[in-house]
Specification:
This protein has 186 residues and is mostly helical. The chain contains seven helices and three strands; from the N terminus they run βαββαααααα. Strands 1-2-3 form a three-stranded antiparallel β-sheet, with no helix packed on it. Strand 2 and strand 3 form a beta hairpin.
């Protein structure tokens, strides 16, 4: 965890993003099921010329109901409102580069870093080691089920018009707060 003094909210319309970076972020978000990187809340910061991903609290939702976690593995990813669709995300290159890196050893190292107290008393498991193993199994299965979720990501990019640089066409009924605030303190 770190504090990034002077960091700005990353708005893809204000900061040009490389299609390779955009593709890796969209691919990663689809892998972990991140539903919270949309035009409403980009969950990215721009600091010293570099984008930073923040707040991954809306990911890995399968762990809220382990009994139905298997269904999450092939669940399509709803990418239609992803904030980076207008940045021409190259998800095919991301898939080629990232999927092989997601190895059992890498995932085990990641879950081994999770504090044990976060994993105790998990319903249906005999202890933290079993929970850790379940995360590894789940994420490897999701990686291997890319045929179920990657086509929808590609379709969202194609439908959005890769490289348009514009926010999604439907912003909903409420404009951003900065469009509604009054000037001059009134």
């Amino acid at each position: 965890m770190d504090f990034l003094p002077g960091a700005l909210d990353l708005d893809p319309a204000a900061f040009a993003l490389d299609p390779g970076f955009a593709g890796r972020v969209v691919w990663f978000d689809a892998l972990v099921g991140n539903v919270d990187r949309s035009w409403r809340n980009a969950n990215m910061l721009f600091w010293h010329g570099t984008p930073y991903l923040i707040d991954h609290g809306a990911t890995l939702t399968f762990h809220h109901a382990w009994s139905s976690a298997e269904g999450w593995v092939r669940r399509p990813y709803a990418a239609a409102e992803h904030v980076l669709l207008g940045s021409a995300p190259d998800v095919d290159t991301a898939d080629t580069e990232l999927a092989p890196r997601l190895t059992p050893d890498l995932l085990r190292a990641a879950v081994d870093a999770v504090p044990e107290r976060w994993l105790v008393d998990e319903l249906g498991f005999d202890g933290p080691d079993e929970v850790r193993a379940a995360y590894v199994t789940q994420l490897l299965a999701r990686r291997d089920a890319r045929d179920a979720w990657l086509p929808g990501v590609r379709a969202a990019i194609a439908e959005r018009g890769a490289g348009s640089g514009e926010p999604p066409p439907t912003r909903g009924p409420n404009p951003p707060y900065w469009l509604t605030r009054r000037r001059g303190g009134s």
